[in-house]
Amino acid sequence: MSTEKRPDALINAEGLRFDGRRPDELRPIQMEVGVLKSADGSASIRQGKTYILAAVYGPRELHPRHLTLNDRAYLRCVYRMATFSVSDRKRPAPSRREREISMVIANALEPALFLEDFPKAVVDVFIQVIQADGGTRCAAINAASLALADAGIPMRSLVPAVAVGKADGTLIVDLGDEEDKYGEGDIPLAVLPKTGEITLLQQDGSFTREELLEAVQLGVNACKYLHELQKDALKRAYAKRTPEDDDEDDEDDEDFEDDLETDLGESDLMEDE
Amino acid sequence: MSTEKRPDALINAEGLRFDGRRPDELRPIQMEVGVLKSADGSASIRQGKTYILAAVYGPRELHPRHLTLNDRAYLRCVYRMATFSVSDRKRPAPSRREREISMVIANALEPALFLEDFPKAVVDVFIQVIQADGGTRCAAINAASLALADAGIPMRSLVPAVAVGKADGTLIVDLGDEEDKYGEGDIPLAVLPKTGEITLLQQDGSFTREELLEAVQLGVNACKYLHELQKDALKRAYAKRTPEDDDEDDEDDEDFEDDLETDLGESDLMEDE
Amino acid sequence: MSTEKRPDALINAEGLRFDGRRPDELRPIQMEVGVLKSADGSASIRQGKTYILAAVYGPRELHPRHLTLNDRAYLRCVYRMATFSVSDRKRPAPSRREREISMVIANALEPALFLEDFPKAVVDVFIQVIQADGGTRCAAINAASLALADAGIPMRSLVPAVAVGKADGTLIVDLGDEEDKYGEGDIPLAVLPKTGEITLLQQDGSFTREELLEAVQLGVNACKYLHELQKDALKRAYAKRTPEDDDEDDEDDEDFEDDLETDLGESDLMEDE
Amino acid sequence: MGDFSAEVISHIDRNYIADLLKRGDRVDGRKFDEYRQLEIEPNPVAAKAEGSAIVRLGGTSVVAGVKVLTGEPYPDTPDEGVVMITAELAPIASPLFEIGPPKEDAIELARVVDRGVRESETVDVKNLCIEEGRKVYMVFADVYPLEYDGNLIDASSIAVNAALLTTRFPEMKLEDNELVETGKMLELPLSNMAIEHTVSKIADHVVIDPILKEEIVQSCRLTMAIDKNDKFTAIQKGGGAGPISIELIEQAMDMALSQTKEIRGLITDTVKEAGV
Amino acid sequence: MGDFSAEVISHIDRNYIADLLKRGDRVDGRKFDEYRQLEIEPNPVAAKAEGSAIVRLGGTSVVAGVKVLTGEPYPDTPDEGVVMITAELAPIASPLFEIGPPKEDAIELARVVDRGVRESETVDVKNLCIEEGRKVYMVFADVYPLEYDGNLIDASSIAVNAALLTTRFPEMKLEDNELVETGKMLELPLSNMAIEHTVSKIADHVVIDPILKEEIVQSCRLTMAIDKNDKFTAIQKGGGAGPISIELIEQAMDMALSQTKEIRGLITDTVKEAGV
Amino acid sequence: MGDFSAEVISHIDRNYIADLLKRGDRVDGRKFDEYRQLEIEPNPVAAKAEGSAIVRLGGTSVVAGVKVLTGEPYPDTPDEGVVMITAELAPIASPLFEIGPPKEDAIELARVVDRGVRESETVDVKNLCIEEGRKVYMVFADVYPLEYDGNLIDASSIAVNAALLTTRFPEMKLEDNELVETGKMLELPLSNMAIEHTVSKIADHVVIDPILKEEIVQSCRLTMAIDKNDKFTAIQKGGGAGPISIELIEQAMDMALSQTKEIRGLITDTVKEAGV
Question: Which domains does chain C have, with CATH numbers?
C-alpha cells in the first residue's frame, strides 16, 4: 500500500537535496557494536531510515564439507531483507537479487580479512535488513565489517562503503530511496582505507567517463569519514566491556580484546600512511 | 465440487449429534493389522468415513547418515493425504500442515517405543490418508501403533488417540468432518494407557480452563475403549497367522510372535494397574 | 506468437507429403562431428529445421558418489530444450517431459557402449535442442552417438534413430512438426545396426497390430540409411584431423584414433552380416 | 519400475529365473502370458472423491481417485475440458521408494499411465465443456501405490480406468457469470477405455505382468496401451536399457492383445455389479 | 524449539538442572511461574511497514512487521479479509539454525504462532472486507528471530500482537472497478488479543518461559494461547516427545493464566504510550 | 565467471601468466586491449524464435534467442512492455558447470547481462505497449553458453544485442477484448545498444576479453556496459574478491571505450548484411 510519488525536483534551486542535504552530505548514521548476544560478533546500523543488523558466527567447522577451502576460511555471506522492510511486501523466499548482493558483499569484505589464518573453517556473516530506505548493500558492509571485528576475526582494516548517485545532473552521496528510484544512477562502492583500493563497485543509470571517475572519488572521500564513524563505534563498544562483565567466557574475551586493540591500532595507522 | 452446507444444529433437541451419536459416542471403527504385504508392519483404520493406511519399515539403516542418533533409532513419520481424500482437491506436494502433523504423530508414538534397542537405525512410519472425514491425525496414530506392533518393534504399549471437541456448547468425542468445521473447537489427544500420560495434545477453538480439563478426561476415557479395540485387532491378526502360513520367513516370524505376545500381555497388564 | 494452422491435407492427391516428401523420405540431414571445443566429444545435427547440439564429457569421476556403479560407468544423459526452440516459449526449468526423454535417450544409447570398461566413472551426454521441428529425441540420439564416438568412448556401434508416423492413413518416416501435431501417431525408435535390435521404442496415436509392425520395419530401414550418414560424418571428422593439428594432446589422440578406426571398421562390418 | 534395485539381486537369482524360463516356467508358476489374480474394489473413497478404485494385482496394489473441478479452458482448446493423471511412488508401498521429490521412475510411471489415458482419448474432452472459452470440467485422476510387487503400471492403468468409470459429478451451468448446479448428476464421457499391458524381457523371453523379482532381472520392459477396438494407443519401452528384437516385440504385442478383452471386461463388470 | 540440539548438552547439565528444580530453583534464579524481563519497542519499521515491533524477552529477541495489502477474497469466504503469519528461523539468531529451506522446527514456530492468532480470531476478518466477493484487505505479519535464548514462540506471539496493535493503513474503496484511497487511516479490527504462553516440562516440573538451557533438557513443552477473557484458544504440545500427565497440564494451564493479564497489559500500555 | 575453479590451476601457471603480463605479453599472444576474433551468426533459430544469434568469441560461444509474447503490464507501469533476460550455465558448455539449480555464478551471469540491457534501456519499453493497462508485448531473451573459454558475459551481451536486432514479430491489436494480428511485422524499438566489456585484473595489469586461463588466475574483473553515446550504463565488479585501484579502473574504462564502437559496428553490419 505504498503511496510514494516522484518528488518534483531531487535538487532544489539552492542546490540542496530533497531532504535538505548538500550533495556530498551523508544521512544521519548510528552504528552500534555487540547488539546481538547469540552471535560471536554483531553490529547494527541506522543510516537515514535504513536499519540493518549483522551477525558473525565463526570461525567454525564448515558444512557441507565439499565447500571447504584448504588454504583459508570460507567467507559465507547471507544478505536477507525482511518481507516488511520495503514498500511492497517482499516474498519470503530469497530472491536472485538477494543472492547476488550476498556475493558482492562477500567480495567487498574478503580482502580485509586474514582468512588464511583459519584453513578449512567457515566465517558466516548474516545480514538482516529490517528497513530498507536506499543504500542497503553499502550499509550492510559497514555493519558487517564491525560485526567481524566484534567477533575477533583478524582484519587488515574495517571496510567502509557508500553509494554515489546522480540526481538532476548533480553527483550526490549516500542516496535515499527516492534518489535511488527517481535519480539518474547509482554507484555503490566499498573501499580499503589503507590502500584506497575498491572492493565493491557496481553502477547503473548513465554516466560519462568523467562523471564516473568523479563519483568514485566522491565515494572514496565519503568512505574516509564513514571509516572514522566505524572506528568510533568500535571504541565505544570496547570501552563498555570492563573486566567485571566477563564471568565465564574470560579466556575468549582476552583474545577478542587483543584483536580489537590491534585492529584499532592498525586502522589508525592506515590513515596516516 | 463440494456442496457441503452447515447443518442447522450440531446437537439436536434430544441432546444427540448431527449423525445420531451421543456426545461421548465414537463412530463405527474397524481396525485391521497386516494389510500391506510390502511393509514390515501395517494396519488400516476406518473410523466413520475416515480411511487410513499405515506402513512400518525398519529398523533399518538410515539415509542420510547425518540424521543418525547414537543412542537410539530415529523414528521418522510421514503423514500424507491423497489428493482426492478431501472435498477440494489437495495439491500433490506435501503441505506445511502435513509436515507438522507428521511431527506431532512421531512425538505421540515415540514414548511407547523402545527405540534405544536400535541405535543408529531408523524406523519409518508411513501414513496414507485415503479418505479424510475428521480426526485423521488421531486415527493415524491408532493405525500406526498397530503397524509398529505388527512390525515387531518393541513397545511399552499401543497408543490410542481421539479428538474431543465442542458443538453447540456440548463437549463431544470423535469429531466428524462437519463437527470439526462448524463446531467450537477441537482437541486431538493421544494417551499412554499404562500411565494415563498424554503424548499428543493440541487445541483450537475456545475453551475455559474447566472445559479443557473435562475434555481431556473425556478423551482419556475414550482412549481406554480404543485401546481395547486395538488389542482386539492385534489378537485377530495374531490368531490368523498359523505356522502353516510361514514358509521362508520362519525365524523372523518367531521373533515377531514373541514380541507380539509380550506386547499383548503387557498391554493387558497395564489396564489392571 | 505462433500462428500455425493445420494444413488441409498431410498427404496430397499424388501421395506426397505436406513438404513434398515421399512417405519414406527423410528430411535433409547434416551431421557434423567435433563442433564444440570445450567438450571431450561433440556433434551437431540439422534434420529439417530441427537443430541440436550434443556434448560428451568423460569418463570422469562421478559426483554425487552414491550414484556410482561398481561394475560399469554410469551413463548420464541430460536433454534440454532452449526456451526459444519451440513455438511457445518453454519455461526455463527442466520439465518432466525433458527428464523422461533424458532417460529414454540414455536407454537407447547404453547397449552400444562398453561401459564396463570404466567402473565407478560417469560418462555425461549433454544435449541442447536449439530448434525443435519434430523428431528431437531421435535426432538427439543420432548426434549423441556421434559425440560419444568423438569422445573416444568404446562402442559396439553408432546408434541411429528415427520417428515413424501416420498421416491421412499412410505410414510416413521422419515426421516434421505439423505431421507430429496433426497426424495420427508417432513412433520414435532407435536401432543397433549390428543386430537390428530396438533400443528405443515409444508410440502414441492409434495403430493396428499390422500397422505397428510395418512401421517398425520402415523405421529400421530408415535407420540403416541414417547409420551410413553417421559413419560419413565421422569419417569426415577423422579425415580433417591430421597429425599436424595435434600439439600437446598427442597421446590421447592416438587412443582416440584407434578407437575411431575400430568403430568405423566394426560398423562397416556389421552391415555385411 | 525395476531397474533402480538391480544391484540388490545376485547373479544366482538372475540365472535361476532365466533357467526356469528356458524350461517354460516362471518363478511364481504362472504361464508366460498369464496375469496374476486381479481384484477391483470400486468406490472406496465414496464420501470425498467423485470416483475411485482400489486394484490388487497379486501382491501389488494401488488406489486411484478422481476429482472433478471446474476451470477455464486452455486458450488453444477453448471447447475442451482438461484431464490430468498423476502418480507418485509413495514410500508406503515399498522400502525401495525413497522419500523426496519425484525421481525418474516416478516421473515415468506418471507419464506412462497418463499417456495410456490421454493418447487413447479415453475421456472425450470435447464433452467436458460447460461453456466454450469460459468454463470447462477439469478431471484429475491421481494414483497412489500401496503395495509393490512389480508391474505398477498395469495396476495403475486398471485403477484409473475403474475410477473414471465410477465417477459421478454434478452438472454445472453458467448463469449470470456464476457456475450453478443444475441438479443433475453426470458420468464421464468415456470413449474407448484403453488398458495398459506390460511385458518384461528376460534373457530371450517375454512374460506379461512381471512380479518384482522378474522386474529386477529384466533386460527391459514394453508397456502397450490397447483400446476396446484392439488398436495400440501408446507404447513405452523402459525399465532398463536392454535392446529387444522385432520378433520379441511381436510376441509381446500378441500377449497383450490376448489379455486385454478379459481385463477390460472385468473392470466394466465389477463397476456395473457394484451398481455405482 | 529445543529438541534439535539435544545432543550438545551433557547428562551432567541435564541432572544439574533437574536437581535444581527439585530444590525449587531454576538455573537462572527465576521462580517457576516467572517470565524473564520483557521489553517491547513499538514501530521500529515506521517508514516501510504498516505496523511493527521488536520484542526482547531476556536474551531472546524478535522483530515482527505487518504489511497490509489488498486482494481478492477466497471464493468460500467472500466477505472476509485474509490474515497470514509467517516466521523463519533466520540464521542471524543462532548458530543452531541452519541455512536452507524451512525445517520442521521453523514450520512449527510459524504454525503455532499463526494458530495462536487465527484460532483466537485476534483479527476480525469480517471487518477486513472492502467489497464483498471482490476486494478485501490482506494482512501479513512476519516474524524474524534476532537472538535465541529459548522460548521463541512467546516472544513471537507478543511481537505479532504488538505489531498488529501499531498497524495503521489507508482506507480503500472501489470506484469504477479501481481501488482508491479515501484519505482516512484505519486501525486493524483487533478483538481479543490472545497471547501465547509456553511451559517446559523438565523431569516432573513445569516452568514458564524456558531459556535455551531449559529447552535443551526439557521432556516436552506446552504452548497455550489465552485471550483477554481467559479462554484457551490454542494449545500445542511440542518440543520433544516426552509424555505429560494431566496434573502437570493443569499446573501449566494455571501458570499461563496467572501471567497472561500482565503481559497483555504491558503490550497495550507500551503501544499506547508510544502514541502510535 | 572464473573464481569457481581457482583451485585447479597451479601456482606455476599463476606466476607464468603474471610474468608474461609484466613483459607486455598475454598467454595467447594478444595485446592487453585486444578482443579475440568475433563471429556472429544471425538468426540460426529462424523457424521458431522471433530473433536469434550465435556468437563465437575465440573459443567461447553462446546462442541467444528472443521470444515475443503478449501479456498484461505490471500495475505500476501500465504503459510499458516487459523485457526479461535469462542465462544459464548449461553443462554442455563446460565440465566446470555442474548440473542443478542456479548457482551464484549463473545468477550473476544472468543479472549482469540483464542489467547491461535493462539499465541501458536498450529496448524502449514504452514502445512495447499494445493498449495501456491491458496488453503489452513481453520480450524474453534467453542465452545458452555452448563453449566456455572465458568471458561469457561479453559473448552473451553481444549475442543478446544481435538477437534483439534480428527480431521480427507480428503487430497485434485489441478488438472486442481479443488480440488479433494486424498483418504487419514489427522490429523491436531498440534505442542505444549498450554492449558489455569485461576486463580482468591480473597482478597489477588489466586485460580485456579474458580467456579461461586468465579468468582462473584473475584477482577480479570489471564489466562495463557502454552505449552508443559512450555513456556507461552499468558496471559490475565480480569474478573474485581482489581489490582494484582507481587507476586500474580508469585504465579498464578506457580499454572498454576503445573497443565498443568496433564491436557495435560489427553487430549492426552483420545483421544488416544478413538481410534479416
Answer: 29-241 (3.30.230.70)
